[in-house]
Design brief:
alpha+beta, 5-stranded mixed beta sheet, 6 helices, globular, binds FE2/S2 (inorganic) cluster
Length: 160
């Protein structure tokens, strides 16, 4: 196995980061292990469960399917940064009030995916919400409360 390393310069949650990474290291492992940003989780490690969801240049991606080295020059946002920015405070509140999380393992990815849908504007149908979140697995909630929370936020944002 190659032990090659690559220098990258990225922005993570608004902060410039210059690091040397192993060529084979995934983005989510880099964020968790090298930067201590453990809000992005590692589940299936092959692109199925969505636990590792992060934003790269404004678009959500699977952090387990991207290499950190591929992100050179990119703008990365994790659940920590999005949460600190306050842009999903209403969504987090709705998840909390409606018991849309139990163990919380899926929740960071679920929130980032739901926010991407909500940023399109309007009030999506429950089918659309389910479809959009279908790449994020939850083993605890049965999804109903998650759809309720996302729908409630879409309706509330539509009123403001
Ligand atoms: S850990 Fe990346 S999709 Fe499951
Ligand atoms: S709350 Fe446990 S996996 Fe979703």
């Amino acid at each position: 196995m190659s032990d090659r390393t690559i220098a990258i310069a990225i922005t993570v949650n608004g902060e410039p980061v210059h690091e040397t990474v192993e060529a084979r290291k995934t983005l989510v492992d880099f964020l968790r292990e090298d930067l201590g940003l453990t809000g992005s989780h590692v589940g299936c490690e092959h692109g199925v469960c969505g636990a590792c969801t992060v934003r790269v240049d404004g678009v959500i991606v699977r952090g387990c399917l991207m290499l950190a080295a591929q992100c050179d020059g990119a703008r990365i946002e994790t659940i920590e940064g999005v949460s600190d920015a306050g842009t999903i405070a209403d969504l987090q509140d709705a998840f909390h009030k409606r018991n849309a999380l139990q163990c919380g393992f899926c929740t960071p990815g679920m929130l980032l995916t739901a926010q991407e849908l909500l940023q399109r504007g309007g009030v999506p149908s429950r089918d659309t919400i389910r479809h959009y979140l279908s790449g994020n697995y939850c083993r605890c909630t049965g999804y109903q409360a998650i759809v309720d929370a996302v729908e409630a936020v879409a309706q509330a944002r539509g009123r403001t």
